[in-house]
Amino acid sequence: MSAVVLTLAGCGTTGASTASWHGAASSAASPAASSDGGGQARPISDSTAQAATGKPSASASASPSTSASAAASAPASSDGIMRQTGGPGVALTFDDGPSADTPRLLAMLREHNIKATFCVVGVAVQEFPQYLKEIVKDGHTLCNHTWKHDEKLGKKSADTIRADLQRTNDEILKVVPGAQIKYFRHPAGNFTPTAVKVASELGMVSLGWTVDPSDWNVKKWSGAQMTQHIITTVRNNTKPGAVILSHDGGGDRSATLAAYKTLLPELKQQYSLVALPV
Ligand SMILES: [Zn+2]
Description:
The protein is α/β, with parallel strands linked by helices. The protein has a single domain (2-13, 41-216, 227-270), classed as Alpha-Beta Barrel (TIM Barrel), CATH 3.20.20. The protein has helices at 2-9, 19-22, 31-35, 64-72, 102-111, 122-127, 129-137, 158-175, 193-201, 223-237, 254-270, and strands at 81-82, 91-95, 117-120, 141-144, 181-184, 205-207, 243-247. The chain has a seven-stranded parallel β-sheet. β5 (181-184), α9 and β6 (205-207) form a beta-alpha-beta unit. The longest helix has 18 residues, at 158-175. It binds zinc ion.
């Protein structure tokens, strides 16, 4: 576990503790407050992958293909950031990995036949290539989360941003040739028009979120308290179409894993859990 922390700490822009990756975020844990990503420093996660795997809660138009195409054309907001799946499906997204905790999460998702989206960091892919392979093998969707989680990347030049995102995609493709990388999530949700544009030019949709249980905020909660906070926040704020942000990397993810052990069967019961379409 400590190895993970050390490894991922290296991904931070400052090289400080992993907590600092997202430490600047506001304390607001509500989805609404965090969904704008704008100036708040917040973590990112991954979102879903391709087809609906859960049960169509509202039989309506929830067939896998329908929801997938709906989500594909959903990108939404005028700022070009996709924060909802575009259909009734709910997307689980996990950020900052791969890490030593990723296999446990993958095992849980497999157990419930749930597909998710993983927003991976280049240096973490370099560190744990095998886990990236397993993510892809299990059918989850990939999202580019920058080379080393530079929370200020979006303020740099378009060329710098492009080089960072391309380097990250290249590393992913080196490990998993042919992998589809259709999403980009800026570290801490600090999207800028330039970053959104560059990502788009590289064929990636900028991905935000609607529910943020703040599992990155290890300074505020820990252990069982953190686990309960994650469970409560997700339970109270998830609605059809939601994109839920959580983390499988960036620090000790025990609390997140414990929370999802409880949440996965519940969410699957209530919603169609979809992987963002590629
Ligand atoms: Zn992140």
